[in-house]
Design goal:
Distance between the termini: 18 Å
Helix content: 25-40%
Shape: globular
Largest sheet: 8 strands, parallel
CATH superfamily: Dihydropteroate synthase-like
Strand order of the largest sheet: 8-7-6-5-4-3-10-9
CATH architecture: Alpha-Beta Barrel
Length: 285
């Protein structure tokens, strides 16, 4: 299976690791660790380089936190955060994914050589699908999100999420194909943590193989999500106290489970550890 992107045809015959680059001061996991407003980009550039040294196959660059309750970032601010990093990373020789839902950002990063648009809104914002459709070959990841970041965990989904999420993703992908985007450019993401309960998130993992039926590659994004803390913490009181860095082992376990159940890309913070675990998995496959 090949994922067609702007500059690369990504061979998905083996699982690929996408390293997360948050150019944000407020992301739930590493907000402010590599970037704060006015601090420059040296730490972010070094982080990109380290992720590749650790074995990342792709980089996913984002300039707006989408954690539950996060406020939206103005367009000019997101551009100011993301574009310098894209310019740096475009010289590194690996596929670049940009985590954005704004069509103006999509167009700007594609003009700089970005390879993939990774959109939590699945191109539902006005003008977003048109940007991707106009581009001759960029890849796209369509994610399911219930409601929006400000409200998604206030009132999560109800009922059996598997058929609901599957129907949404199939419709989104079909609509994009109808707009002229080849199927080879499309990847799907079930949206772990985006408007789902802990039980619903794990139901999506338990039934993940059902999402293979439409024939699109799957991207799994479990890294450091709060649902992992909810099932590994020793008590309910300790869930909120569990540092996100302590979620590395559960994150790697979830990535392996996702790959074993058909995911072709895993989006992770802990690249080195995930790459090592996948090598063990591949040796036994």
């Amino acid at each position: 299976m090949i994922w067609q992107t702007s500059r690369f045809q990504i061979d998905l015959s083996r699982p690929r690791v996408m390293g997360i680059v948050n150019v944000t001061p407020d992301s739930f996991s590493d907000g402010g660790k590599y970037f704060t407003e006015g601090s420059g980009f040296a730490s972010v550039f070094a982080h990109c380089d380290k992720l590749l040294k650790d074995g990342a196959d792709l980089l996913d660059i984002g300039g707006e936190s989408t954690r539950p309750g996060a406020p939206p970032v103005p367009l000019d601010e997101e551009l100011a955060r993301v574009l310098p990093v894209v310019r740096h990373a475009a010289r590194l020789g690996v596929p670049l994914s940009i985590d954005t839902y704004k069509p103006e950002v999509m167009q700007a990063v594609l003009d700089l050589g970005a390879d993939v648009i990774n959109d939590i809104w699945a191109l539902r914002k006005p003008g977003a699908a048109e940007v991707v459709a106009r581009h001759p070959s960029c890849g796209v990841c369509l994610m399911h999100m219930h409601r929006e970041p400000q409200t998604m965990q206030v009132a999560p989904m109800e009922g059996d999420v598997v058929p609901q999420v599957l129907a949404f993703l199939e419709a989104a992908a079909a609509g994009l194909q109808a707009a002229g985007v080849d199927k080879s450019r499309i990847v799907l993401d079930v949206g772990v943590g985006f408007g789902k309960t802990v039980a619903q998130n794990f139901a999506l993992l338990a039934h993940q193989r059902e999402f293979l039926a439409p024939g699109y590659p799957l991207l799994a994004a479990w890294s450091r999500k709060s649902s992992l803390a909810a099932v590994t913490a020793t008590s309910l009181a300790s869930v909120a106290q569990l540092d996100v860095a302590d979620r590395m082992v559960p994150s790697v376990a979830a990535a392996l489970l996702a790959v074993d159940r058909g995911a072709r890309i895993v989006r992770v913070h802990d690249v080195k550890e995930t790459v090592q675990a996948l090598k063990v998995w591949m040796a036994a496959s």
